[in-house]
Specification:
alpha/beta; eight-stranded parallel barrel; 11 helices; binds phosphoenolpyruvate
């Protein structure tokens, strides 16, 4: 049985006062059977880690650089996130791919860096609306998954989480239907099986992201290959994120 995961991506939202949301989240879910991860902006990682020390909430970064250190103004490396107390990191989010020109190859290097520094990579993949309409969703995802995970040894991938995030569903209020989500999650699992065998594929969590809200979460999570959610907007409010955790 794969343990469910609810990960919140706060994106570029949140000043110190936002950290209060973590208190109620932690208090609500003392004994939950779902892993809870919040990825606040980098400025809040250290206080967020301190604030969640006695709570089931883990803290993650929203991206990491391919390199450990160097002349990369504005970037953050995997060891810096680990040093700040983060346990997870989102890699390959579509906003990073779209606005910061991240590619399947550089996402692969980010995943390698994350694993090397003991961070759980939450590896995002997903097609655009145009790609879905052109019926190339599976080939787009095949390339993203295959290149994103290339040359990474099986033993290094045990903690991997894959997030299927159809780009047309992110922040739009449009959600994939349960059938669309299940079909793609099953396809991604088949790619993992082809690469590393069925034991591995069955153990890896594939979470869904794209306008997950309290009122659509139960339906999505009822699908056999949907192992949780990566949540943007609805993770900013502890009441609504709690409902997603508890669905
Ligand atoms: C996201 O940014 O990863 C996301 C899924 O956002 P939203 O839930 O707001 O669509």
């Amino acid at each position: 049985m794969r343990r469910k995961m609810a990960a919140g991506n706060w994106k570029m939202n949140g000043l110190s006062a936002q950290l209060a949301e973590l208190d109620s989240l932690g208090a609500d879910h003392g004994s939950t059977s779902c892993d809870i991860v919040i990825c606040p902006p980098a400025t809040l990682i250290v206080p967020a880690v301190a604030r969640t020390q006695d709570s089931p909430v883990s803290i993650g970064g929203q991206d990491c650089h391919t390199e450990i250190k160097g002349a990369h103004t504005g970037d953050i490396s995997a060891p810096m996130l680990a040093d700040a107390g983060a346990s997870h990191v989102i890699t390959g989010h579509s906003e990073r791919r779209q606005y910061f020109h991240e590619t399947d190859d550089t996402v692969n290097k980010r995943i390698v860096a994350a694993i090397k520094h003991d961070l759980v990579p939450v590896f995002c993949v997903g097609e655009t609306e145009t790609e879905r309409e052109a019926n190339i969703t599976f080939s787009v995802l095949d390339k993203q998954v295959t290149t994103g995970l290339q040359d990474i040894a099986l033993e290094d991938l045990s903690k991997l989480v894959v997030a299927y995030e159809p780009i047309w569903a992110i922040g739009t209020g449009k959600t994939a239907t349960t059938e669309q989500a299940q079909e793609v999650h099953q396809f991604i699992r088949s790619l993992l099986e082809k690469a590393h065998g069925s034991g591995f594929a069955e153990s890896i969590r594939i979470v869904y992201g794209g306008s997950v809200k309290p009122d659509n979460v139960a339906e999505l999570m009822s699908m056999p290959d949907v192992d949780g959610g990566l949540v943007g907007g609805a993770s900013l409010d502890a009441v609504s994120f709690s409902k997603i955790v508890l669905y």
